Write the structure tokens for this entry.
Amino acid sequence: MRTELFDYELPPQQIAQSPVEPRDASRLMVVHRATEEIEHRTFRDIVDYLRPGDLLVLNQTRVIPARLFGWKTGTGGRVELLLLKRRNGNTWEALVRGKGLRPGTRIALGGAGGVGPETRGQEARIHAEVVRATKAGGRLIRFDEPVEPLLEELGVIPLPPYIHEPLEDPERYQTVYGRIEGSVAASTAGLHFTPELLVDVRRMGVELAFLTLHIGLDTFRPVKEERIQDHQIHTEWYELTAPVAEQINRARLEGRRVMAVGTTVVRALESAGGAASPLAADDCGPQGEACGWRTVSAYNGPTDLFIYPGYDFRVVEAMITNFHLPRSTLLMLVSAFAGRELILHAYQEAIGLGYRFFSFGDAMVLL
């Protein structure tokens, strides 16, 4: 399948530069897959499309202050690091800015989070060394000591490269339910929920479940290969605990709908269901709704699942998501779920109606 089939033109002014207030005041496009009907609502109206017994699954990851500023110890040249993921011990994979960052280059980092790149002349708080370049063009960076305890002091929250305005409140790039630190990008579909809206959802009989998937910046990178099958998908770490796996399996066996909040939840749930056992014929639920679906298994580790059209969904029956970048793996995922033509039609309608796109943009629910 050709990558160009997932391209579209977006006016730059529709790339949201800041979040709306309150969170649930963003717009909501409702797409009914069976009928291809499209409705336009406000996100707080999501309660009109939930029903008692639904299981709403959310990603409880939090974004870490992964953007660090420093200088080369030999020359004082500026260095910027964007930590992507810890490889082992004190070694991290990172994107870098700065000249001459060859293996063996020593880096000093200091200053307080939010002071910006002008850190030279300050006292170094931690040192690191460039180990080697990565295939993706980044670097492996080995810190002299664990850097995690210093991130709140030294780092700033990284925003996607298409957001050019500073964020006044860093918590607006966090979900209200996030609690497990580890992502370098937000689970943006969840940014629309307020504590009050979650209370309303639970009061109407919707069950909540939480998993963790730590998001990397490869999420935002367009697929460059001509055929999407040739793209090497990035890996992300996720954890689905045994109690949450039991919640999901019970919902499926009882014929209740499983709705994912975000593509990260979709990826985790489908990964957890990929190697599990199919439901037995006599375990199909009261009306047989669960026949043909798979149970999910508890898991803690990486996933490299790449979902694109032709994929057979095993767990997820509905999803809440944002509007995604052209040629991105996330656009391919939602196209696999709802159909490429329907998704691109919905995107064109959203553009025509002035919807806001990407991380701080509006939302879509696929039913």
